[in-house]
């Protein structure tokens, strides 16, 4: 399989299962309604496990533009391949979000709160303070990427057996650092589904909060870059 298609499929699986658990918890009349943050954090960890395990042997399972950029900064991935990987990840994120909408379409219709509908696509701050929100995303992504770089050294990519520790890493970040902004840590997990929220005919939806959309993008890329620089200097 082409590595770019692997990134597309892996990221689509990641967002389908990750945003799917958010939809299951937040939308009305679902089997998992109101089951809470722990279920969401665990679901996202399993989403990472499935995505990484499924395509690790094909593409290295970056599944995140921030991870791809960090690997390039650390000298573990060719810069010439970065644009293709990022594009594949973004398209995969859009596909995953589309599938969540298809899966839970009837539940979107029975949910009145537009904020909850938006939350099934992308992250948002618990308390809106853009400098603090940005710091939260930088810190969470730093932890994610620094740990991943420690796992892949001296390899060029994640192997299939690294799927479980990465999943546990995301679980730990979710329960410890996810209370402020929802720990996006990836443009493919946040910006790509946010675009789909703007495009899809979701009944009673609100704006896609473009005034906040830059925070998880800039925060994840900055945190990943800082992690790569710190790792290489250690």
Automatic annotation (TrEMBL):
Chain segments annotated as transmembrane: 6-27, 39-62, 82-104, 134-153, 165-186, 210-231
Keyword Transcription: no
InterPro entries on file: Aquaporin-like, MIP, MIP/Aquaporin, MIP_CS
GO cellular component, as recorded: plasma membrane
Compartments (UniProt record): Membrane
Family, as annotated: Belongs to the MIP/aquaporin (TC 1.A.8) family.
Protein name in the entry: Glycerol uptake facilitator protein
Organism: Aquitalea magnusonii
């Amino acid at each position: 399989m082409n590595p770019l298609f692997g990134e597309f499929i892996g990221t689509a699986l990641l967002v389908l299962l990750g945003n799917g658990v958010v939809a299951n918890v937040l939308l009305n009349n679902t089997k998992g309604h109101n089951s809470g943050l722990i279920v969401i954090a665990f679901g996202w960890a399993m989403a990472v496990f499935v995505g990484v395990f499924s395509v690790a042997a094909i593409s290295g399972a970056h599944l995140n533009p921030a991870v791809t950029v960090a690997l390039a900064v650390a000298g573990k991935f060719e810069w010439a391949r970065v644009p293709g990987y990022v594009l594949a990840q973004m398209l995969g994120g859009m596909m995953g979000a589309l599938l969540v909408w298809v899966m839970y379409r009837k539940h979107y219709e029975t949910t009145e709160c537009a904020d909850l509908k938006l939350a099934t696509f992308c992250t948002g701050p618990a308390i809106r303070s853009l400098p603090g929100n940005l710091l939260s995303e930088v810190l969470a992504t730093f932890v994610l990427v620094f740990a991943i770089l420690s796992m892949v050294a001296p390899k060029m990519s994640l192997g299939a057996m690294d799927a479980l520790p990465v999943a546990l890493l995301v679980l730990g970040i979710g329960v410890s650092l996810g209370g402020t902004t929802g720990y996006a840590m990836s443009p493919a997990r946040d910006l790509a589904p946010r675009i789909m929220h703007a495009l899809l005919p979701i009944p009673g939806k609100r704006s896609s909060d473009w005034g906040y959309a830059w925070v998880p993008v800039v925060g994840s890329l900055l945190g990943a870059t800082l992690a790569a620089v710190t790792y290489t200097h250690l």
